[in-house]
Design a protein that fits this description.
The protein is mostly helical. Helix content is 37%, strand content 7%. This is Cytochrome c oxidase subunit 7A2-like, mitochondrial.
C-alpha cells in the first residue's frame, strides 16, 4: 500500500504507486520534441589561456601535507592555520566558561525582597 500527502485535508491517504512517488500531483516532464542537435565543445577546442584553467596546486599541497615534520595537518600551512586554531580554541573555552557561569547562576535560588 502506498500513501501520499493530501493537500486539502493535510493527511496521509492511500494512493497508487505513481501518485505516491510524484507528490502533489507533479508528474515528470517528458519532452515531446527532439532535442536540438549541437556540436559538443571538446576540451582540445578550449584555449589553454582561459582564466578558469589555473595552475594545478594539488601536487604542491600533497608535498606540503605529507611532509613528515611532526605538525598536525590542521596546522601545516603556518600562521593563518595557527590563528584559526587558537581563535577556535579561545571561543570554545570562552563559550564553555560562559555556559558554566550561566548554569551556576540559574541554579542559585532567587532572593526574596
Amino acid at each position: 500500500m502506498y500513501y501520499r500527502f493530501h493537500g486539502f485535508t493535510q493527511r496521509l491517504v492511500g494512493a497508487a504507486a505513481a501518485e505516491a512517488y510524484s507528490p502533489q500531483g507533479l508528474k515528470p516532464i517528458v519532452s515531446t520534441e527532439s532535442p536540438a542537435l549541437t556540436t559538443p565543445k571538446l576540451a582540445s577546442d578550449i584555449p589553454a589561456t582561459d582564466t578558469f584553467l589555473g595552475k594545478n596546486k594539488v601536487p604542491d599541497l600533497q608535498k606540503l601535507f605529507q611532509k613528515p615534520d611532526g605538525l598536525p595537518v590542521h596546522l601545516k600551512r603556518g600562521v593563518p592555520d595557527r590563528l584559526l586554531y587558537r581563535t577556535t580554541m579561545a571561543l570554545t573555552i570562552g563559550g564553555t566558561i560562559y555556559c558554566l557561569v550561566a548554569l551556576y547562576m540559574a541554579s542559585q535560588p532567587r532572593t526574596q525582597k
